[in-house]
Amino acid sequence: MGLALVAGLCAAPVTAATATTAGPAPAPAPPPTVEEQRLDQPVPQEILRRSGFDAVPAGFRRALSDARSYAQARRVVVRQGTALWRRAVDRAQGRGPAGGDLSRDDDRPLYWARLGMTRQVRTWQPPFALSEGQRAALLDELERTSRGATDLGRPRAPRAPRLVLLTGFDPFTLDRDIRISNPSGAAALALDGTVIRTPRGPARVETVVFPVRWGDFARGTVERTLRPYLPAAALFTTVSQGRVGRFDVERTNGAWRGGFPDNDRVSSTGTVPVTDPASQPQWTTTTLPYGDIVTAGTGRFPVFDHTEVTEIPAGGTAPVVRPDGPTPGSTARAGSGGDYLSNEIAYRATLLRDRLGLHDVLPGGHVHTPVLEFGPGNTDPATGTVTDPGFVRNRLDIIAQVRAILTVAVTAAAR
Fold first, then answer.
1. CA distance 414 to 200
2. 275 lies in a domain?
3. Do residue 239 and residue 135 come from a single domain?
4. What local confidence, expressed as pLDDT, does residue 29 receive?
5. What is the pLDDT of residue 40?
6. Given a cut of 80, is residue 390 above it in pLDDT?
7. How far apart are CA 48 and CA 112, in angstroms?
8. In which band, very low, low, confident or very high, does the pLDDT at 13 lie, cut at 50, 70 and 90?
9. Which whole number is the average pLDDT over 117-140?
10. How far is Cα of residue 138 from the mean position of the Cα atoms in its chain?
């Protein structure tokens, strides 16, 4: 293929149009991922249509098809990925048209629209040579811009000097129920750019939503995103969906992956892969003011200081559940937040805090929200609807309580 391309260029005069074909040898477009393939099912299409986000992938496809070089394609990806994030935040915070009858607090339009865009990039056959590395770079730019990762340092008004970082997650366990929403992602959209008043002055909340994929975490997406901002932060909290009917402030995080399949149906079991594994601890701990959080009246759901872990004791071979945290010299098998990506993001963020020398000065850790449940009579994914009044009320209550917990934490940290 490369020789044929060279021969064709030699036989024709070089023009502005043909010059853009020079560069890396073309690589075949890969097929859509498992995650992207779910997009064609009726539920995602209904969510996109009822939010007005159904036009996003088509508009992105048209813009991308006009690109005649990698540089042009990159500009399209950055511009439209950023626009998607800001549109989702604006919708969640009541700015601009709702675009449909789906409630504004819903995080799912962002998730499914992003997948429509990543599928376009992944399967695109451009009129110029696009290498495998360039396609991967475009996908990386799209992921980062559409998740808020490149928006963290954007100037805000009114300007609040103190920075609070909050992370959420995409929906997950979609093979169990494709209608699922993730309240941590919804909270991230609702809180991005908002201001919390504290005794030491205002604090600005900045948020990002992470994928539910083992591979992205192994490639360092958490550290890459948070490292530039942790030294300037007043507090950070990673947030995910956890147990039914309760919030948990997770006391201890473990260096272990338990293998539960991610959104691409990929499993991963073993020690959490980080840089400099020789200095990697088995456990990290929260520095959030959990005592203040659990005793404050933050909302309808009870909040717990959750201390249980699973370990292999020093000198032992079998896992043991410890209700009060790990024992000296033990090997992690589950943190207080389990052994999935909730635990891993908490482990990575707190390990980064410690490696930056911020353990004693930066409050940070993980909060699990209640499971977001559908309303009575709408629990069967085979017959249920994509939303109902109880579902919306539950999500709004969880978002409000995340906001209240964050306010308590920031206020306590300011004392």
1. 6
2. yes
3. no
4. 82
5. 97
6. yes
7. 7
8. very low
9. 97
10. 18
The answer to whether 368 and 250 have CB atoms below 8 angstroms apart is: yes
For β-strands 283-285 and 303-306, DSSP reports them as unpaired
Token representation of residue 62: 């048209």
Q: How far apart are CA 151 and CA 167, in angstroms?
A: 13
Domain boundary among 146, 177, 199: 146
270: left (phi over 0), alpha (psi -120 to 50) or beta: left
> Is residue 202 domain-shared with residue 113, that is, in the same domain?
no
Q: Which has the higher per-residue pLDDT, 221 or 1? A: 221
Residues 177 and 68 placed together within one structural domain of the fold: no
Would you state the pLDDT for residue 158? 58
3-state secondary structure the chain: CHHHHHHHHHHCCCCHHHHCCCCCCCCCCCCCCHHHHHHHCHHHHHHHHCCCCCHHHHHHHHHHHCCCCHHHHHHHHHHHHHHHHHHHHHHHCCCCCCCCCCCCCCCHHHHHHHHHHHHHHHHCCCCCCCCHHHHHHHHHHHHHHHCCCCCCCCCCCCCCCEEEEEEEECCCCCCCCCCCCCHHHHHHHHHCCCEEEECCEEEEEEEEEECCCHHHHHCCHHHHHHCCCHHHEEEEEEEEECCCCCEEEECEEECEEECCCCCCCCCCEEECCCCCHHHCCCEEECCCCHHHHHHCCCCCCCEEEECCEEEECCCCCCCEEECCCCCCCCEEEEECCECCHHHHHHHHHHHHHHHCCCCCCCCEEEEEECCCCCCCCCCCCCCCCCCCHHHHHHHHHHHHHHHHHHHHHHHHHHC
* Cα gap 191→185, rounded to integer Å: 10
Nearest Cα neighbor of 252 from 343, 179, 132 is 343
How high does pLDDT run on average in the chain? 93
What is the domain extent for residue 33? 19-146
In a domain, 189, yes or no: yes
Taking CB atoms within 8 Å and a gap of at least 24, the contacts of 374-381 are 374/179, 381/176, 381/177, 381/178, 381/179
CA distance 26 to 127: 10
